[in-house]
Amino acid sequence: MPERLAPATVVACFTLLAAILLPFADLEISGHDPWAMLGRMLTGFARPDFGAIETLAHSLALTVAFAVAGVALGAAAGFALAPFYDRRLVRILCIGLRSIHEIFWALLLIQAIGIGAPAGVLALALPYAGIFAKIFAEQIEESDPRPRNALPPGTDAISRFAYACLPLIRAPMTAYCLYRLECGMRASAVIGFIGLPTLGFQLDSFFRKGDYGATSAILICYIALIASLRLWMRPRLAPLWIAGSLALLAALRAPPMGEGALWRFLSEDIIPRPLRSGEGLTGLLDWLGDLTLTEILPGLWNTVIATQIALVLTGIVAFLTFGLTVPAVTGRWGRYAGHLFLVVLRSLPEYMLAYLFLQIFGPSLLPAILALGLHNGAIIGHLVGREADSLVPGLRPDAPRGLNLWGWELAPRVFGSFLALCLYRWEIILRESAVMGILGIATLGFFIDSALSELRADRAVVILIVIALLSALIDTISLRLRQRMKIAGLRDSDCARTSALSADAMRT
To answer: Where does the sequence pass through the membrane (predicted)?
Structure first.
């Protein structure tokens, strides 16, 4: 086995795998007259209706409140866990927390504590706590050890961290918190599709009514909110935003849950039915076998197909669009147009894009693949474009411009980072593919949603464990591939830091 794996070989293998899986993908267009539907949607989008501005403003405020509160709680928990991340139990706990998507956490929490503000905040805070713990631990580990070593030998660990380590990592920690808030804004909007009062709830309501003008107004406000995040969320104002968010969420009233609902959920509902009914190991194995054959394997097959095809589409979109933000390639006005195009695609969550495509093409893997490819491709295209733009000032005065610059100079030099980012997003695309099942697409999320709607949380938990294990497997393979190719690994912290520092371009 060669010591170094050629990036071109990896690209060829992933492309070949997607081509092999393509005939097995359900890409049927089942919508009734999809092009007429698309025409009606575009006509409505061209005439945004801000008439229901009071309702829209309240949903916007709640979207921000859930995001701010969830990210703040997750950051606080991650900060507390980070110093102990090298311990096996803490690391396993954090991996488990971040392997489950926010919307799955929301579905479970609604079953346990009801559809209210705590469920929405915890749905964001739990996975983000695992992510923050990993990132903060890496930043602590990578910080310069010399200030800590210069302190007197008897200095306690807390003082060493507070006075010698924290000042060095405060800036990257703040940058990552801002980046994660951007992610939290997208997640906050998405949890509205399952009943929480954020923008997703309003979007779903107006779509069901066919009111595309109001839908357009929601999307415009949402994109503007994301694009202006760096203007209204300043670190020194964070305490005020957190206090205001908690006050707004405290005013929400949720339907009361029965007494002991949480304990019943933890002690009974998530325990496999054969164990609750005393059927023993034989009954449990039969139950698991039936669940595997009827739900896990079909859902897993569709999830993997959607993931692999969407990953290749992501690479195509990113590779073709990264030059849009480089003035030497597209010119000054072309750069502005390219930034706007990529900002719109990266601001809309995959789930929201898939929901839009679902109205046009009907329930198949096609809406999921298109949404995943466009959203993740825009993210990678934006990041790689920023790196490519930083290379231009170092070129010779007689260097080419336009497509020649893009194809012969920039593309070869950023190819390693491009491929590393695609592999980094691979595990994220898998989790998002599973979530698409909630829209009626036959991935693993479809069976989770069905189990919870039938009050069979035990089946949902088993499928969630399968998703977590598969996510961990893909994350491990991705890391090994990046190491074998000897390209910049772009771990979570590196990618997130790059995204956070480059997010100022969203305002352009």
So the answer is: 60-82, 103-126, 161-179, 212-232, 309-330, 429-448, 460-481
Tokens of 291: 């669940």
| Token output for 483 | 């190491």
Name the residue type at position 471. S
Average pLDDT over residues 34-59: 79
CB burial of residue 385 (10 Å; 0-12, 13-18, 19+)? buried
Percent pLDDT > 70 in the chain is: 92
**Backbone angle region of 211, left / alpha / beta, with phi > 0 → left and psi within -120 to 50 → alpha:** beta
pLDDT tens-digit map of 440-469: 888 999 999 999 988 899 999 999 999 999
**d(Cα 23, Cα 351) in Å, to the nearest integer?**
24
For residues 47 and 353, what is the distance between their CA atoms, to the nearest angstrom?
19
- The residue type of 14 is F
Q: Which alpha helices (H) appear in 191-296, and where do they start and end?
A: 199-209, 212-227, 229-232, 238-250, 261-264, 273-276, 280-291
| 251 secondary structure, DSSP code | T
Question: Mean pLDDT lowest for which of 26-30, 450-454, 471-475, 484-488?
Answer: 484-488
Provide the residue count of the chain: 508
As to burial, measured by CB atoms within 10 angstroms (0-12 exposed, 13-18 middle, 19+ buried), residue 205 is: middle
How far apart CA 278 and CA 276 sit, in angstroms, is 6
Q: Please answer whether residues 443 and 303 qualify as being in contact, where contact means their C-beta atoms are separated by less than 8 angstroms.
A: yes
The CATH code of domain 288-492 reads 1.10.3720.10
Question: What are the residue ranges of helices labelled H in 322-364?
Answer: 327-347, 350-361
Q: Exposure pattern of 13-31 as b/e (b: 16+ CB <10 Å)? A: ebeeebeebeeebeeeeeb
CA atoms of 52 and 80, how far apart (whole Å): 42
